[in-house]
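Blackboard transcription, Thursday session:
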Amino acid sequence: MVRFKCTLCGICCSKYWVPVTHLDIWRIMHYGGYKPRYFLRLYPAAGYKSTMPKVRLKEGEGYIGLKRYVNGVCVFNVDRLCIIHKFKPLTCRFYPFLYVTSGGRVLRIEVNKDAIGVCPGLILDGKPIDDETYNNIMQLAKARVFEKRLYADAVNRWLSETGGKYGFEEFIDFLIERAKKDMAMLVYKNLWVK
Ligand code: SF4
Ligand code: SF4
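(Written on the board underneath:)
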């Protein structure tokens, strides 16, 4: 079967930028005690593409994501290790797999083709992904889709309330307040992912 065991090489943490939802931000603050100004930045829509909702701010249009150093390494990667591993953004938890959706529903889990030949922990032998891995990622994907929807609601509310005339700092404060409420709802429904 497809086998995967992370070798902790850190390649994926320097190859990609990581867009986040308000709930990803909240996990990092809540469990790690990090201040959002330390780890977040706005990625301009002109230079970056994402399936995440785009936000309009005083500084321009774009996506909220984790900061990276000039060499591309994520701000949370130290000596090739993720220092927020237990509560890292959900995006980071899928690699080297991905989920496929249709009509807002998760259809299946696949190997991320971009990871083939890049991620040394991924070994392909032509057989399917093992059941345990598949089911774990499927559960996570469903949570991710739900959290993205909540994030889209937050962004829409931001745009309708402000028209995008306030800045990055105000938007982060707004997201944190939304995240507290949404986390409480997810905990109540037993859907919260640490
Ligand atoms: S590229 Fe693959 S093996 Fe390396 S850190 Fe990322 S997931 Fe692990
Ligand atoms: S949050 Fe962790 S896993 Fe995700 S890119 Fe940063 S260091 Fe890598």
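Lecturer's comment: Residues 131-162 form the longest helix (32 residues).
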